[in-house]
Amino acid sequence: MKTNAEIAAWGRCYQTALRRYLRSSGPSSNPPAALRLGRRALRLGLETLDVARVHERALDTVTSPEDTPDHDGRDAIKRADTFFRETIVPIEETHNAAHEAGERIDRLTQMLRQRAAESSASDMQLEQAVACREAAEARAEACAAHHNELTKEAQRIQRDLRDQMRARLSCQEGERDGIGRELRDEIAQALVGIDLCLLALKTSGCLDTDKTVKSILDLQRLSVQLKAHGLITNEGQADL
Questions:
Q1: Distance (Å, rounded) from C-alpha 237 to C-alpha 230?
Q2: Distance between CA 47 and CA 88 in Å, rounded?
Q3: Is 13 in a helix, a strand, or coil?
Q4: What is the pLDDT of residue 207?
């Protein structure tokens, strides 16, 4: 923005150019002085309203009868309006360019906002996908850890079952061995008793009946069969 002195000097130049234009003979639709003044006003940073104020002050001065002797007042005002319109052309062109630039900026801003919204939505979807994946990985890790624990527990139970089975089999084997020994001992003792009885009967002189002899023979035959099946051994047994 220029100083007030420069603006005031421009206003005087505008008044002088407008007076010269109004005094010129013949209509002129494109006064060249107006365009030069408009470009200078643009460089000074003046707006259309500033130029309009200067124009009003200058118009009060230059439209007196002595300034426009060859034209009536209405024609002078019309020519002055043409001069004003030509003066503000550079300013209006700048405004139009600025308006178009503003519209382009608005469109670009809208596009940027839309892209930002789309990017934000994409980021949110990506964050949700990442969160879902992390949750799935955490569940998979938890399942894997639980599976490992179950596997270890199953292996431990299998070892315990094998140990219990071996212990039970060993216990049953021991019980069978013990029962077998007891049975053999009892049978052996019974057979030894039978042999002793038979021996006593055989050696006694009072056995003279056929029935007694037959019973003795049957007992001896039973003893032989028990020995043949391995139910008793000769250990500790008296010979008949």
A1: 14
A2: 8
A3: helix
A4: 52
Q: For position 121, what pLDDT does the model report?
A: 87
**Residues 54-91: tens digit of each pLDDT:** 999 998 887 665 555 444 567 888 888 999 999 999 99
174 burial class (0-12, 13-18, 19+ CB within 10 angstroms)? exposed
Residue carrying structure tokens 């030509």: 86
The residue with tokens 């408009």 is 38
| Angstrom distance (rounded) from CA 113 to CA 107 | 10
CB of 18 within 8 A of CB of 62?
A: yes
CA distance 112 to 106: 10
3-state class of 196 per DSSP? Answer: helix
Rounded mean pLDDT for each run of 10 residues along the chain, 240 residues in total: 82 91 67 88 91 91 60 76 92 78 68 81 88 90 88 89 87 83 73 69 61 70 68 50
Q: At residue 231, what are phi and psi to the nearest 5 degrees?
A: -75, -20
Q: Which of 180, 175, 182, 191 is nearest to 235 (CA)?
A: 191
Question: HSE-up of 168 (CA within 13 Å, CB side)?
Answer: 6
Q: Domain residue spans in the chain?
A: 4-87
